[in-house]
Specification:
Layout (H helix, E strand, L loop, with lengths): L15 E6 L3 H14 L4 E5 L3 E6 L9 E10 L2 E10 L1 H30 L8 H25 L1 H15 L5
Antiparallel strand pairs: 1-5, 2-3, 3-4, 4-5
Helix pairs in contact: 2-3
């Protein structure tokens, strides 16, 4: 039996997807609200006619708690659903800030060390160790993100199932 690949099957490798449906924005939002209400013991979320945010209810919340964000847009005669799986925007922004901060500091410290070696000075003997420390901090940030992603695998799978069950029947 050959399984037909749908748009949502690509979620395993890509956290974004796009669906085109024949319902209006309000009809789709109403159907999604009803579906979310039927599964309220498992999921929580906010639904309006343009934006939907869904998360899995858990006893403990981790920093990398995944969310499913759906944007409902009107394009010509069709309604387009754009979905994104990932952590909250605050967590995402925080991790990007850390990568940026540690990356810039690494460039500053390694440049200081390199210039010091070129001009045969000894004003910044700590620059090399500071640049290595920044590389370690970048790696630790990366490791914290990976650990958070691994811990939220079951929640991501539940959100994927939610997306399949609530969105796939409307796909054109």
């Amino acid at each position: 039996m050959k399984k037909e690949e749908t748009t949502l099957d690509k979620i395993r490798t890509r956290p974004r997807f796009k669906l085109i449906i024949q319902l209006s924005q309000d009809e789709y939002a109403a159907g999604l609200k009803k579906y979310l209400q039927e599964h309220r013991e498992q999921f929580s979320g906010n639904v309006n006619s343009e934006m939907v945010t869904v998360s899995v209810k858990t006893e403990t919340d981790s920093y990398w708690k995944p969310y499913l964000s759906l944007r409902i847009e009107k394009e010509e005669e069709n309604t387009v659903i754009r979905g994104v799986f990932g952590p909250s925007s605050a967590v995402w922004t925080f991790f990007m800030f850390l990568y940026f901060l540690f990356g810039i500091l690494w460039m500053v410290f390694i440049t200081m060390w390199f210039v010091e070696k070129q001009i045969k000075s000894n004003e910044f003997p700590w620059a090399l160790s500071a640049s290595i420390t920044m590389l370690v901090l970048i790696f630790l940030t990366y490791a914290a993100a990976k650990i958070g992603q691994r811990r939220s695998n079951t929640e991501m799978e539940m959100l994927r199932n939610f997306a399949e069950e609530s969105v796939l029947p409307f796909e054109s």
